[in-house]
């Protein structure tokens, strides 16, 4: 898979996640945040597990304890991110949640430099800054109205940055992307399930009322989109992946407007244009640089 194809795969994952914000918000009418996460990640585990087992039969070696250790770290970072996001989305809009989640676009290259001692391509820094400005404009150009839910979403973005950074490392060590997907989903289902049983009520009628949202969240937003993320990140860098995945803010705003009648200020469209420009630059500039540096 080429880098361009990988980035398009990540863009598809972002589109699915954008619709997932609507499902997450709507499900809160019937279910607590932990029950929703537990059910959707349990469903995602069931959906991916057969493919992970098939992958294992073709692998050159069995998974080692070290592999499971990395899988656990990825799963825990996703669990914390999704728990914070699901709680935060109860007290903020789908639009705000999708935009603020995209702040991981600036955190991923910072993690690469500070902890992994890896220098991303120089274009990552200006495009990350442009993306953050775009996210700010999508939020109306002001941070003064941020509430508790918004702050939880920002913290969620930090954990997502860790998950995005760790994912290619775990896949590179194990060579088993579907096994990683199955284990991280199982970790999320188990962790959220513990919180749900301890803290939240549940009923059959509530589950049935939220079933469409659970199915979307489990099969598409979790099962398919996170698998696409893992596959796409095998062929591109974590900072570039963060730029493309951050387009979920655009799709979240689109689905929020179409399905929930949320409005976007005029300045928000400028933010959309900036994010789109950042995605184009992060794709085109490295390719043009590579071609100029190639011998004739």
UniProtKB/TrEMBL annotation:
CC terms in the record's Gene Ontology section: plasma membrane
Transmembrane segments: 35-53, 65-85, 97-116, 123-145, 151-171, 178-199, 214-231, 243-260, 266-285
Keyword Lyase in record: no
Compartment list: Cell membrane
Record's bilayer topology term: Multi-pass membrane protein
Ligase listed as a keyword: no
Keywords, sorted A to Z: Cell membrane, Membrane, Transmembrane, Transmembrane helix
Segments forming domain EamA: 7-139, 149-282
PANTHER family the UniProt entry points to: EAMA DOMAIN-CONTAINING PROTEIN (PTHR42920:SF5), OS03G0707200 PROTEIN-RELATED (PTHR42920)
Stated name of the protein: Permease
